[in-house]
């Protein structure tokens, strides 16, 4: 499916990879997507907030700053009927297809091994395919700053933290280190602590202390991101390392299929990010509204804010 792509700013067109994470099953929203689309499908493939599915809106957003050849899609084989018509024009080498969904950690590491075959020194960013962003220009300018920050400090891994509008307790939060901490790039600070779904009272205190919503957009050099997995998820790393020679070749599907049958699902936040938080940075991203669209209540709220609730859920009005 052809999409209209804005001209690529010179600042990012010269290099850097973007990986759109589109392999999740979206179990919590199955009933909602069935009501909207007429069948149960992962939310990234659902026209949940308008005439385009979330994957397409994410793809357009990323295309503002990255040429098509630098954009990769992490997918799951069982979703082919949904992604094939959307990504028909995307070259096979830009589709990183998992034989099964084993969570975000496995999807990232598989993608990183594929990117390492191209350029292990390159800066790569990982972007969830199923989030809402109110202003693509503002958001992608923040993303560009994250890439520049890594260019300034090659060993850095930077997460994009969204300036909160409310003390939302259903989100993951990032608490940056105090402002007195030296900054190597404007708006970027060391991460002090991750908070996974704090209470409303805790979230209110986090807002006062400059806490940020975790967008799960992660930017770093390919080799440095792989090193985090090697250090903090060594068993998962070793499984992928065994098959690294097959990555990007005709043998990839068979080899990765065998590996994925041995993989356990890991929690990216707890098993990787929390364990290496002292090695991570967060970039403050303000001036926009953002939602993870993680549960039906959040989706219904966003639909109402956008004036879509009556059109998609007439019985709920």
What sort of overall outline do the alpha carbons produce when their principal axes are compared? globular
- Given helix and strand content, the structural type is alpha/beta
Looking at this structure, what is the CATH superfamily? Spore Coat Polysaccharide Biosynthesis Protein SpsA, Chain A
- Measured between the Cα atoms of the first and last residue, the distance is 33 Å
CATH first level: Alpha Beta
- What is the CATH T-level topology? Spore Coat Polysaccharide Biosynthesis Protein SpsA, Chain A
Please describe the biggest sheet, giving its number of strands, its sense, and whether it closes into a barrel: 5 strands, mixed, barrel
- Mean pLDDT score: 91
Walk across the major sheet and give the strand order.
Answer: 6-9-7-8-10
Total domains: 1
- Rg calc: 19 Å
The CATH architecture category equals Alpha-Beta Complex
**Pattern of helices and strands:** HEHHEHEHEEHEEEHEHHHHEEHH
Helix content: 25-40%
**Low-confidence runs of at least 5 consecutive residues:** 1-14
Number of strands: 11
Please describe what this structure looks like.
The chain is α/β, with parallel strands linked by helices. It has one domain: Spore Coat Polysaccharide Biosynthesis Protein SpsA, Chain A, CATH 3.90.550. It contains 13 helices and eleven strands. A five-stranded mixed β-barrel has the order 6-9-7-8-10. Helix 4 links the parallel strand 2 and strand 3 (95-98). Helix 5 crosses helix 8 (222-232) and helix 8 (222-232) packs across helix 9. The chain is globular, with a radius of gyration of 19 Å. The relative contact order is 0.16. Mean pLDDT is 91; it is low at 1-14.
